[in-house]
Amino acid sequence: MRLGEIITAGVLALLSIYLMSESAELEIGYVRGEGPGGGAWPFWLSAIMLVTTVFIAINWVRRTSPPSRSEEPVLDREGWKTLLFVGGGILGFVALIDVISMYGAMFLFLLYYLKFLGRHSWFLTLSLAICLPIGFFFFFEGLMRITMPKGMDFTEPFFNVMYEIIY
Prior knowledge:
Structural class: mainly alpha
Distance between the termini: 52 Å
Number of domains: 2
Oligomer: single chain
Radius of gyration: 20 Å
Strand content: under 5%
Number of helices: 6
């Protein structure tokens, strides 16, 4: 666990620095009359992530967190199984985006994750799996005016209905 903690912190720190440098290509401050620049949210969220990785490293050096004192392996058999099931679900989600849209893939991933991995009730599973993609649709497409991947042509009737609600 000790080695895994510092490696994870290092990888997250490098990812934070990369994301900060990429987002700094856009305006990261406040643009007068327009609001935050295009790179503001990713830059500052990455900066916060970098600061938190520094705290993880400090705790690792001082051995103040339970993982920083542990000599056990990072993942036991159950941990590897969980990683495989969750990682496989995420890969399936990404693979389905271009086929059934971002929102359809989100629905199936939530169904898989909540019902089959989390063993939650059908009521909770279906409530979240239906409401979250619809909520994200209205947030991104309606409020933010950001178009997400729509998948193949057979998903078009669903989106036509949703756009009628927005416009």
